[in-house]
Amino acid sequence: MRGLQPWRWLGVPMLQVLVATILFGIPIRVFDLQVPQPVFPMALAFAWAVIRPSVLAPFAVLILGLFLDIFWGGPLGLWALCLLIAYGVAFAGRSMMAGQGRLILCGWYGLATATAMVAGYLFVLLDARSAPGPIPLAWQFVATIILYPYSQRLIDLFEDADVRFR
Amino acid sequence: MSLRDNPLGELKVPLAWGGAVALIVAVVAAAALLLSDRRETFKAEAYGVSRKASDTVLAPVGDVLATPGRWIGQGVDYVGDYFGAASENHDLKVQLKQMRTWRDEAIALRSENARFRTLLGLKTDPPIPMVAARIVTDSHGPFADTRLANTGAEHGVKVGNPVMSEDGLVGRVIGVTDGASRVLLLTDIASRTPVMIDRTNARAILTGDGGPNPRLDYLRGRDPIREGDRVLTSGDGGVVPRGLPVGVAVKGLDGRWRVVLASDRAPIDYVQIMLFQDFTQVVNLKELSQTPTPPPTPGPGIKPVESDLQALGKPDAIAAAIAKPAASAPAAKTPVTPAATATATKPPAAKLDAAKPSAAKPAASKPATPKPAGATAKPKPKTPPTDGGEA
Hints:
The complex is a heterodimer.
Chain A: H1 6-23, E1 29-30, E2 33-34, H2 41-51, H3 56-72, H4 78-92, H5 94-97, H6 102-128, H7 134-145, H8 148-158
Antiparallel strand pairs in A: 1-2
Chain B: H1 12-36, H2 49-83, H3 85-120, E1 130-140, E2 145-149, E3 162-164, E4 169-177, E5 180-185, E6 192-197, E7 203-207, E8 215-217, E9 230-233, E10 245-251, E11 257-261, E12 270-274, H4 279-282, H5 285-290, H6 306-312, H7 315-328, H8 338-344, H9 350-355
Antiparallel strand pairs in B: 1-2, 1-12, 2-5, 3-4, 3-12, 4-5, 6-7, 6-9, 7-8, 9-10, 10-11
Helix pairs in contact in B: 6-7
């Protein structure tokens, strides 16, 4: 197969992320502590931007962000915008990431995630006129950074899948 | 073969541009949605159809997915209860002994309260009906702290209803649909709750910041709070009833006063939604807004225009009311506009003219209070006492 079918690199990971988000939204406590709530779609936003340029990918990121906003009950459009910013950072640095090792890619993933979180912080600051606590923000950042292996796996799987972008 | 010679090499540029344009369009759409969002308001329509539809779907899904976790939790509790029964029994006996003292005190206070209420004729608040619900999904990020409960509009739940757990206040309802309610927790960045310190009665606003311990803003008074003070809802503004337990005050690492929430003592799995209606929901705002405004007080010497009086509904009565102060005012020197004078001479204003002394007369000739027509005749000029000749 010469081309890369959208359902393979966009559809299936989207479903995986949706299921993971719902599962981590179940109200359970482990040893009287809440389960961390990472931003699963962040891994996709980064991986999709690295894999190849696409018209569909930004809209898939938008849908995932809107799902997060609705599922988590946050302001509608907040996570959609933050994820698109992360996608934009990775998309802009795509040429610089080409041929780099995993450590550098992980650094870029951290940068994209941090940019999205800072943007979210500022948007919420303007919207609610109150600053979110830095500790919960840091916790969610750490929980999201841990997802990098999933993003790397998607990149490994699909980066060379389309012969036009080798 | 070089990249330039590759016939597919040129394909990268349009796709990259297409991707960039798609990104910009998506960003604009997301920004527009974010700017138009008003999730934390008390207006039911602000919640949106998309949220309602998704909550209707998510509530049963979350309920099914949460069931195994609930079973495991119940199993762990059962095993824990079995092995910890003896020590728990001992603790409960100690607690029961303490509670008996509190019970006796409570009975005495209740009786005393009832007497005071009778003496003062106080109108006490009616009991608030409640609806039980189960929490089916949970989010606890820095930007959103909400939960989805599996009870909704079919049980009379409305936007703004306070939500309690067995330990204390949890939050309030921000969205309702059939079979589901979205609860905004006290820890959410958009949450603002009027509270008071039980010991000093000092008021504050409990402000969520996404963390587990919301902060106390706008604390007033000298030494209003100490570590360990109980924090209750103040009921100010009519959003939540007064006296609901919120938590205990602590000094945060950032030096600000924060609250360890009472509802955080145990997992929030079952909640009670209080069908409490705040003032803005109970009062008939439409009726309030239709209350007629009082007529404007005319300035000194200004004749009321007949058309204005007729517009107010009862021209005769109002004109009579206006005529009194106008008569006593030193208004004669104020020029009357021709239009107003002409209007005042029209037939319906005949009564006005009868009730009102002429505005053209000098102020000095006016009596302090209006008198009958006969009495308002020209005052006699003061004549010096006749002593039989010119002075």
